[in-house]
Amino acid sequence: MTRPGEVAVDAMHEWEARHATLTVKWHAVAAAEQSQGATAVTHWRNRLGQLQAAQRDLVQTGRWRGGPRTLLAALDVQYRELAMTAGLAWLLRSDGHHGLGPALLDGLLHHLGIDGSGTEAGVRAVLEEQRDETRADLVLYGGDWTIVVEAKTFAVEQERQLDRLYEHWRNEPAPCFVFLTRGQRVPTTAVDSRDQWRALTWDQVADIARVAATSMTGAAPGVHDYIATLEAYHRV
């Protein structure tokens, strides 16, 4: 007859045997996983090395890029109204060193529906023209036409700004008042002059300039950088 104590001892021996078997199996599983892991790590390292080599090749050929997209952006002027408006005035000068001739001015005149030409005698662009307490960002004077530009990037309009501009330049020959902005932006200070302002975006300026640059050969590098800046930072 088997005694209770002997049953307990047999059960303990059975569990110890099972535990030993499971331990051996778990060690085998762990060893296999470690082997697979080592293989995977080696594969990852090889793959990472390949990716790093590919990146170096892209850097070497100038196709891996970071930072500002244009020189104007590197100079931190891509959103500065004065700088970007001055660049536009430079491009609108028919005899400028940009090499576009009157192409950009002709394109702008056509876009605005103005019967004029960049080759007219006496055409001039004036930046920051002051009359009393009102300053126009850019004024283009032609023989029998005038374009008054108020340019904005992120700044808000000043008190009665567009109405004041209209009051001071409305007696110029055939004045066209242009509100130049990033994206479509409704003017808030054109109250009395609300029907006198034409909307123009920097994005549209980029398109007009791109057509002008394409139509001419030998455009200055600054032309392409200016256009690229508008396309990269003002398409909204």
From TrEMBL:
Source domain of life: Bacteria
Question: By what name is this protein known?
Answer: PD-(D/E)XK nuclease superfamily protein
What is any Pfam family matched here? PDDEXK_4
Recorded hits in InterPro entries, A to Z, give: PDDEXK_4 (IPR029470)
